[in-house]
Design goal:
320 residues, alpha/beta, Quinone Oxidoreductase, Chain A, domain 1, Rossmann fold, 7-stranded mixed beta sheet, 5-stranded parallel beta sheet, 10 helices, 14 strands, binds NADP nicotinamide-adenine-dinucleotide phosphate
């Protein structure tokens, strides 16, 4: 099969190459998916670039252990493992290989083997590109708003990085839950963020952050955590959620450590219940997938590079 292979850390367009490799082995609990689309997420660009450098100590000094990046997947079931009884060849599915390990991957390829528990029926009415773009960002936003922030009617929610992958989902899900949403982004994205359901928008290129919020989801971490926490109402919840926009030895890890004392992290958990809950939002039309651009598989390097620029509008998708 054709797949994108990473043989070292570095600039995406230099280190990601299209190659022929063997199809992945199918374990008893897996489904083999003929990938139609995948999307780019933070673990992908961070593992390609090998930043923060300190993570290389754990994941491999010269290259990551697994050469194929990509976790989000949408496609057609090709084969099922011996212990999978509720999916069959021909089913259209979406899901993810994400297991919490930053270097996990396998979706930037024609076929991906994924645990059946991490796959669900593709939401009706969505393209494969939209479905693939929804998984990690949509689940992270859903779990941040619903479970960590416990957002409900009238909750005042601030979303920093409202126009990016996680942000575009978070604005819509918070609005669907009845929140009063304020989104932070740059001038060119103000109308988009309003159209997704934000009652207020803050253009960070022209003004500072202000106001009082019950829940703050910070997808950028470009302000000191203490300054963000000062915007919280009593009993408000700060959700720091960013590796940061800089490279180097530690990237935003020290800031994340400080933020951990003031807030609660969200962890993307891929399972059937969460995928079905996300699918319900997508099928009802309450949430749409904002696709910045779809790249063909051979241009995966350009796709990862685009996301590494940190100004993607919604999702960067790869069509296989
Ligand atoms: N907890 C988890 O399991 C989990 C899962 C996925 C992602 N994440 C985290 O979520 C974070 C966001 O991911 P993402 O996919 O949404 O990234 P993304 O798509 O690259 O986010 C881009 C967003 O950042 C904004 N931005 C860039 N520079 C900014 C600045 N100086 N000030 C304010 N906003 C700025 C952009 O706005 P403009 O373009 O308008 O400037 C855009 O809204 C990542 O850092 C990642 O670590 C966590």
């Amino acid at each position: 099969m054709r797949a994108i292979i990473q043989d070292r850390y570095g600039a995406p367009e230099q280190v990601l190459k299209l190659q022929e490799i063997k199809r992945p082995p199918l374990r008893e609990e897996d489904v083999l998916i003929r990938v139609r689309a995948t999307s780019v997420n933070t673990p992908d660009w961070a593992t390609v670039a090998g930043i923060p450098y300190v993570l290389r100590l754990r994941s491999g000094l010269r290259r990551p252990p697994n050469p194929v990046r990509g976790t989000d997947v949408a496609g057609i079931v090709e084969a099922v493992g011996a212990r999978v009884s509720d999916l069959r060849p021909g089913d259209e599915v979406f899901g993810s290989l994400w297991d919490g390990t930053p270097t996990v991957g396998g979706a930037f390829a024609e076929f991906a083997a994924v645990a059946a528990t991490q796959v669900s029926k593709k939401p009706a009415g969505l393209t494969f590109e939209e479905a693939a773009g929804s998984v990690m960002s949509g689940l992270t936003a859903l779990l941040a708003m619903r479970d960590v922030g416990k957002v409900g009617l009238g909750t005042r929610v601030l979303i920093n990085g409202a126009s990016g992958g996680v942000g575009t989902f978070a604005v819509q899900i918070a609005a669907a839950l009845g929140a009063e949403v304020t989104g932070v982004c740059s001038t060119r994205n103000l109308d988009l963020v309003r159209s997704l359901g934000a009652a207020e928008v803050i253009d960070y290129t022209r003004e500072g952050l202000g106001g009082r919020y019950d829940v703050i989801l910070d997808n950028v971490l470009n302000h000191p955590p203490k300054a963000m926490a000062r915007l919280l109402a009593a009993d408000g919840v700060f959700i720091p959620n960013s590796l940061g926009n800089t490279g180097g030895l530690f990237a935003a890890l020290p800031r994340m450590a400080r933020a951990a004392r003031l807030g609660r992290f969200v962890r993307c958990v891929v399972d059937r219940d969460n995928l079905r809950a996300l699918a319900a939002y997508l099928e009802s039309g309450a949430v749409r997938v904002v696709v910045d651009r779809a790249y063909p598989l051979r241009e995966a390097g350009a796709a990862v590079s685009h996301m590494l620029g940190h100004h993607a509008v919604g999702k960067v998708v790869i069509t296989v």
